[in-house]
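Input structure tokens:
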């Protein structure tokens, strides 16, 4: 989970509960193997040969864009029903969060540059997303 969050988190959200809900289903489908339980009842999983083949097939399928689900953009559609101070707080909080995420994504681009150019390029997507969100929020609040 930690590695997935580090590598994918800036542009792909997932929760621990989602991951742990999917692992048994992947094991049942033969895509991962279940290891021996470890400390605190942790269970290691490793990708199987079938899982590697399925992953490669998935990577080579045509990709479609994801669906955007941003709670600030959604609430912006209904600003006529919001108190001014609530709106200001929402934009202020969102601006702070996007600026922090932008800083982290920029650092990740650099961190991955030599180690994994593909991961670095994917992080550039997160940089662009957060930069666009910061600019959009600043436009709303100026």
């Amino acid at each position: 989970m930690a590695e997935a969050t580090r590598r994918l988190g800036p542009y792909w959200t997932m929760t621990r509960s989602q991951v742990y809900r999917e692992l048994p289903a992947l094991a049942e489908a033969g895509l991962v193997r279940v290891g021996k339980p470890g400390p605190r009842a942790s269970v290691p999983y490793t990708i199987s040969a079938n899982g590697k083949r399925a992953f490669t097939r998935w990577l080579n399928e045509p990709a479609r864009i994801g669906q955007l689900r941003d709670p600030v953009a959604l609430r912006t559609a209904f600003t006529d029903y919001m108190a001014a101070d609530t709106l200001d707080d929402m934009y202020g909080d969102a601006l702070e969060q996007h600026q922090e995420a932008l800083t982290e994504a920029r650092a990740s681009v650099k961190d991955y540059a030599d180690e994994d150019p593909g991961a670095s390029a994917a992080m550039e997507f997160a940089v662009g997303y957060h930069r666009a969100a910061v600019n959009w929020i600043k436009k709303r609040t100026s």
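The mean pLDDT is 93. The CA atoms of residues 98 and 132 lie 9 Å apart.
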